[in-house]
Amino acid sequence: MVSNQYINTFANKIFIMKSYIALICLVFLLILSCKEQASKKATAPVIAVENTETQVSKPRIQTPNGMVWIPAGTFMQGAVSQDKMAMMHEKPQHPVSVNGFYMDATEVTNAQFKKFVQATNYVTTAERPIDWSEMKKQLPEGTPKPHDSILQPGSLLFKKAASKLPNLYDFSQWWVWSIGTNWRHPTGPNSSIEGKENHPVVHVSFIDALAYCKWAGRRLPTEAEWEYAARGTHKNTAFLWGDDISQLSKQVNSWEGDFPVNNSLQDGYERTAPVKTYPQNSFGLYEMAGNVWEMTNDLYNLKYYEALAQANQVAVNPKGATEAYNPNNPYLEEIIIKGGSFLCSDSYCASYRASSRMGTSKDSSSEHIGFRTVLDASMVGGN
Predict the structure, then answer these.
(1) 3-state helix, strand, coil in the chain (%, to 5)
(2) Were 355 and a residue from 79, 288, 337, 370 both cysteine, which residue would form a disulfide, CB within 3.0 to 4.6 Å?
(3) pLDDT by residue (tens digit) across 82-99?
(4) Which residues contact 311 (CB under 8 A, 6 or more apart)?
(5) How far apart are CA 342 and CA 61, in angstroms?
(6) Using omega within 30 degrees of 0 as the cis cutoff, is the peptide bond preceding 260 cis?
């Protein structure tokens, strides 16, 4: 029989090997990167792909149920000058213009995702057997295969620390690979979504989100669309409601207290909150900050913002970089997630800020990442 200590040790190794470093802020990634990874840095070209299709005015059709119309507009994407918590990969600011589009007013919920699964018999990545032959392609050459008892379907689950941690660089102190945890069992294999039908679905990957979008006749937003929609009329502020951080607990489901030991619950929730719990923004969108990170369709490329700024022109409907590039995590193709989650703390990463962004691998899932969909006027007519 394999001991619990053995299992936990190898579970942490799987966690690190699978590069779930996308679950923390980039500043910590810079410290955690290993020498072998650094020796394999690639130089990925950055091209701002533009879409010249136009949809400026609101279509003369009934707004799809559960969505709101986001009017076309131009804004400065990236960290504002007064944001002292901004990270380097949120800079420099650059002008972006986006067409109008429909966006889900809320994150996709457990109830909505369940409807999709029941209609299609879809199996999420967290529920599928782990294929070591595929996994090792994303790892440094020569990485040993973990014990079969660890190579079981599961997802990343948050765990509180028993006492104050000497440093917050080692994220494995509060994340565990939990076998049997998935969207149906969001807080462990013995948990359920009963009573949480209106909470955002979690433990879903980018692959799962795309499958849902295809079924629903929708798509994931670009990073530019997401940030533009999140800011609403507050285009030049650090937060979605302005610059006053004292409003945080009234506006956002985040971590307030000593992370990751004690959450004061000032905002009312320790983990996910039901959608529409906090005030909507000026466009009518809920929980665009905190609650769960939200996936976009853009690849994460560390040089992308710099390339857009150097172009010295307005980027029209940018689709993101053509190739992923993260020298600190070169083995994975990452996509950008936005908005922060219930775990974001001002002492940790403060990613409930409007410009916050992070990369995550396409086939990974965790307790604090979800998504919402968007719809072009030309796409209206799906499920």
Answers:
(1) 25, 15, 60
(2) 79
(3) 999 999 999 999 999 999
(4) 48, 94
(5) 36
(6) yes
Report pTM: 0.85
How many residues in the chain?
383
* Pairing status of strand 374-375 against strand 369-370: unpaired
249 Cβ contact list (under 8 Å, min separation 6)? 256, 266, 267
Report pLDDT digits (tens) over 216-236: 999 999 999 999 999 999 999
What is the three-class DSSP state of 217?
Answer: coil
Neighbours of 247 (CB within 10 A): 13
Q: Tell me if 114 sits within 8 A of 87, measured CB to CB.
A: no
* Cβ contact 237:144 at 8 Å: no
Pairwise CA distance, residues 8 & 157, whole Å: 13
Q: Within 13 Å, how many C-alpha atoms sit on residue 84's CB side?
A: 5
- Find the angle CA(104)-CA(360)-CA(351) to the nearest 5 degrees: 70
Domains of the chain, start order: 4-379 (3.90.1580.10)
Q: Report whether 72 contacts 100 (CB < 8 A).
A: yes
Q: List 361's β-bridge partners, or say none.
A: 334
Q: How far from 60 is each of 63, 267, 380, CA to CA, in Å?
A: 9, 39, 11
- The burial class, CB within 10 Å (0-12 / 13-18 / 19+), for 66 is middle
∠ CA(157), CA(23), CA(197), 5° rounding?
50
Secondary structure letter of residue 130 according to DSSP: P
